[in-house]
């Protein structure tokens, strides 16, 4: 932004550094305030301007090439790289770090894959962005051949005088668009980090009905605005900001190359030799640039490193605390012997209705369920333990959204439901659509279960293993306590489940829910469905557990500091579970519980 506004310094008398900073801050405030309208609306408004910007770059580049020195096209000869380093030695190495700035920003569009289609980005880069940038830099090189003293203000000096103001306006708007691309990419990265359990829960606003990846995160938006204003106010120089951007850019390239190599080896299963050639070729070039830009650390390059460390601490603290909380829930889950002793009434009164108890466990009964039994005078006739999991696939089809299995014998009328969402899925359905889809999936489960039981009529009096066992990866490290968990497989682009049989959750007994008929009568599918419809008519209640985590008294000081203060601070200030799950506030019952880790 400052680079575009700084063009006024040589054109408007008295327009100094302070004026550049003030104008840049005003533009930044406007830019961040329009983010709430969404990438689609902002993109439609800016796309003609961006097209005009690249057309201007290419046209001015061709003009300078023809007018000043077309022989700069000899620079395509790679031999000049050798001659350049041989002649300038150390200065050439330092200049190499500055060359990185020629490509920074152009690749930001690839971070917006959630906001635009792959094909549109490929076409835009190959046929518009890259050719126009190449012509622009060739034109500036031709201008410098005749006016070598114009290096500090080369872009605006190379623009024909009559076109200065139109180009300045378009350049400023283009700078806003470039900033827009980085902001959108930040939203996407934070959203995916949240889905993987590596970032505190924040409010996400989906701004498009057609593009799933177009999102807006208010907290991140205002945080970026404040940080940008602080950086511009402190540095007041495009040179130091450019150095910071260069180090961040090369760092992203190195990380991307490393991750792509892992994908080639583990996902694509590419030949080992070909997979290693990729980092050797591209990684070597990027490493050379990285070594060159590291010399700029004390000239503004420290900024992205500081931000990276801060975000790494936040992400590590959140993940570490979440893992300890999950392990505590697994360790303290309720045994089936205890549930058997309670009986089908669960030691209380069963009233018509469906209770949706949210938990992170995919196996077993969470310990918080006992707190509900102790706190409530009655419990619902149908209990569904809902576990929401974000899985490593882009989109989960609606028909594969819910996985059900029965918990305890039939007369308990308790089920487990795993709701699966891909990292590009939008939880945009309201509570009524969610409830309707859940009930439809539960009815399908009951019908399928009855069909399978009919085929296994020879097992009349014995316990029948769950005919539709469902399990899911916890999504977080430390799930080794649950040996029966299996990882879902992908086949032809669809999710496949590896079933398991456990002694905890079985389809045992031949009884109906206690609210419908005595447990000694032979139930049928119609009775179970009628019981379910009776519960549906009575409504849904969302049972939420507010689990707190505290370090034990004999824990190390560092662990107490991280868990009791840093992680607790993040939990208090992140988005609440009820809001994050999009459940109605009028139908919530919440119980708190503290886990000592």
Characterize the structure shown.
With 597 residues, the protein is an alpha/beta fold. The chain has 2 domains: 2-236, no CATH class; 335-452 and 464-550 and 584-596, no CATH class. It is built from 18 helices and 10 strands. β1 (205-206) and β2 (215-216) form a beta hairpin. α5 crosses α11 (272-293) and α10 (238-266) packs antiparallel against α11. The longest helix has 32 residues, at 164-195. The two termini are 48 Å apart.
What's the quick description here?
The protein has 597 residues and is an alpha/beta fold. 52% of the residues lie in helices and 12% in strands. The two termini are 48 Å apart.
Q: Structural class of the secondary structure composition?
A: alpha/beta
With strands numbered from the N-terminus, the spatial order across the biggest sheet is 5-6-4-3-9-10
Biggest β-sheet strands, sense, barrel: 6 strands, mixed
Q: What is the strand tally?
A: 10
The tally of helices reads 18
Task: Supply Rg.
Answer: 30 Å
Strand content is 5-15%
Q: Whole-number average pLDDT?
A: 77
In quaternary terms, these chains amount to: single chain
Give the overall shape, derived from the CA principal axes.
elongated
> How many domains?
2
What is the first-to-last residue Cα distance? 48 Å
**Uncertain regions spanning at least 5 consecutive residues:** 461-522
Helix content: 40-55%
Family: Belongs to the HAK/KUP transporter (TC 2.A.72.3) family.
Function: Potassium transporter.
Subcellular location: Cell membrane; Membrane
Keywords: Ion transport, Membrane, Potassium, Potassium transport, Transmembrane, Transmembrane helix, Transport
């Amino acid at each position: 932004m400052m680079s575009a506004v700084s063009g006024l310094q040589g054109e408007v008398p008295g327009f100094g550094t302070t004026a550049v900073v003030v104008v840049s801050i005003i533009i930044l405030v406007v830019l961040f305030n329009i983010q709430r309208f969404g990438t689609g609306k902002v993109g439609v408004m800016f796309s003609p301007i961006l097209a005009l910007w690249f057309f201007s770059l290419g046209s001015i580049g061709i003009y300078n090439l023809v007018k000043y020195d077309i022989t700069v096209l000899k620079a395509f000869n790679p031999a000049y790289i050798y001659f350049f380093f041989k002649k300038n030695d150390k200065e050439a190495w330092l200049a190499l770090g500055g060359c990185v700035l020629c490509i920074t920003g152009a690749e930001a569009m690839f971070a917006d894959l959630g906001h635009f289609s792959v094909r549109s980005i490929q076409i835009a880069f190959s046929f518009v962005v890259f050719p126009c940038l190449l012509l622009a830099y060739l034109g500036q090189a031709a201008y410098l051949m005749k006016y070598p003293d114009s290096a500090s203000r080369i872009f605006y000096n190379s623009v024909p005088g009559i076109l200065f103001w139109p180009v300045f306006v378009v350049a400023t708007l283009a700078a806003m668009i470039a900033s827009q691309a980085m902001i959108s990419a930040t939203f996407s990265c934070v959203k995916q980090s949240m889905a993987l359990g590596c970032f505190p829960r924040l409010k996400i606003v989906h701004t498009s009905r057609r593009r799933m990846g177009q999102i807006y995160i208010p907290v991140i938006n205002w945080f970026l605005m404040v940080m940008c204003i602080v950086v511009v106010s402190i540095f007041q120089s495009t040179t130091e900001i450019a150095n910071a951007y260069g180090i961040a850019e090369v760092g992203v390239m190195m990380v991307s190359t490393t991750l792509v190599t892992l994908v080639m080896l583990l996902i694509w299963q590419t030949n080992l030799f070909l997979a290693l050639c990729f980092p050797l070729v591209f990684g070597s070039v990027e490493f050379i640039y990285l070594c060159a830009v590291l010399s700029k650390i004390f000239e503004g390059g420290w900024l992205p490193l500081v931000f990276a460390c801060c975000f790494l601490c936040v992400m590590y603290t959140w993940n570490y605390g979440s893992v300890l909380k999950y392990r505590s829930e697994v360790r303290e889950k309720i045994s089936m012997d205890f549930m058997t002793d309670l009986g089908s009434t669960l030691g209380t009164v069963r009233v018509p209705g469906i209770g949706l108890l949210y938990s992170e466990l995919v196996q077993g009964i969470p310990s918080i369920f006992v707190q509900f039994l102790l706190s409530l005078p009655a419990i619902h006739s149908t209990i569904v333990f809902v576990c929401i999991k974000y899985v490593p696939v882009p989109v989960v089809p609606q028909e594969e959204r819910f996985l059900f299995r029965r918990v305890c014998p039939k007369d308990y009328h308790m089920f487990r439901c795993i709701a699966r969402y891909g990292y590009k899925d939008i939880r945009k359905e309201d509570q009524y659509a969610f409830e309707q889809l859940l009930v439809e999936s539960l009815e399908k489960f009951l019908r399928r279960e009855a069909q399978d039981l009919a085929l296994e009529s020879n097992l009349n009096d014995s316990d029948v293993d769950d005919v539709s066992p469902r399990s899911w990866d916890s999504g977080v490290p430390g799930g080794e306590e649950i040996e029966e968990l299996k990882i879902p497989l992908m086949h032809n682009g669809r999710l496949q489940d590896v079933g398991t049989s456990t002694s905890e959750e079985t389809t045992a007994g031949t009884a109906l829910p206690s609210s419908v008929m005595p447990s000694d009568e032979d139930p049928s599918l119609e009775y179970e469905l009628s019981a379910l419809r009776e519960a549906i008519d009575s409504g849904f209640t969302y049972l939420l557990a507010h689990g707190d985590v505290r370090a034990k008294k004999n824990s190390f000081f560092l662990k107490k500091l991280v868990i009791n203060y840093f992680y607790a601070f993040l939990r208090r200030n992140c988005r609440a579970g009820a809001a994050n799950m999009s459940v109605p506030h009028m139908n919530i019952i919440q119980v708190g519980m503290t886990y000592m880790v």
